[in-house]
Design brief:
Blueprint lengths: L2 E6 L21 E2 L10 H8 L19 H9 L13 H10 L5 H15 L13 E2 L3 H9 L10 E6 L5 E2 L7 H11 L10 H9 L5 E3 L2 E3 L1
Antiparallel strand pairs: 1-4, 2-3, 4-5, 6-7
Helix pairs in contact: 1-4, 2-4, 6-7
């Protein structure tokens, strides 16, 4: 959810929903052009891409729906599939499940890609970025990137709602009192997904610095 109260100057004028500049590291890297940011060597990257659709055969389904038994064994031994199968399934059973059920997630993809690439004898990292997936112009820029620290927004007498699902950005105008902010939040902000709260509920949550939404026994922070 990621909502919190910030005290900022009354004339603080950073754009709403824009990440605060102090949270953006100016010493940036670029995505490695050799591996497209994957950190993998060309053969392993191709195997990863083909998980969904074979790049050299338009419309042909990827191998995520055509796993071999060795792939299934690796998934099972890694603790995957056990939520959907009581016993270790066959490749045919898993392939049928992946086409008509929830299917594989990115964790299953990576486990299968790495294991199959190793079986085929070509698993490895990108030679250019050494597996990092990104590059810095110079070692000095890399050092500056690693040593850089966040700079918090200025402190002040104002009250403002911030979202923290990203690095952090303002989610409301700045108000002179907490009551005014809570009134605005009741009409314009959400606590989780599309759920809203009353002015009184917002006041209680922001006073305790804990914005949440309850759904039955579940609590979403």
């Amino acid at each position: 959810m990621g909502r919190e109260l910030r005290r900022v100057p009354l004339d603080f004028n950073w754009p709403l929903k824009a990440r605060w500049i102090g949270y953006l590291n100016p010493y940036r890297s670029i995505s490695c052009p050799a591996c497209d940011g994957s950190g993998l060597n060309p053969e392993t990257k191709r195997l990863e891409d083909n998980w969904y659709t074979y790049s050299n055969h338009d419309g042909q389904e990827g191998w995520r729906h055509r796993l071999e038994q060795e792939d299934v064994d690796v998934l099972w031994n890694s603790g995957r599939l056990k939520h959907d199968f009581a016993e270790k399934p066959s490749a045919e059973e898993v392939n049928k499940w992946s086409r008509h059920g929830i299917g594989h997630d990115v964790i299953n993809q990576w486990i299968c890609v790495k294991a199959r690439a190793k079986r085929l004898g070509f698993y490895g990292k990108c030679e250019l970025c050494k597996g990092d997936g990104h590059l810095f112009v110079t070692e000095e820029v890399k050092k500056l990137h690693e040593e850089w620290q966040d700079i918090e927004p200025p402190k002040g007498d104002g009250f403002q709602l911030w979202e923290t699902t990203t690095e952090g950005s303002p989610a409301s105008p700045v108000f002179s009192t907490l009551e005014e902010l809570c009134e605005w939040c009741a009409n314009n902000a959400t606590t989780f997904a599309s759920y809203k709260a009353t002015k009184e509920e917002w006041f209680d949550m922001l006073s305790k610095d804990l914005v949440l939404h309850k759904e039955g026994n579940n609590v979403f922070l």
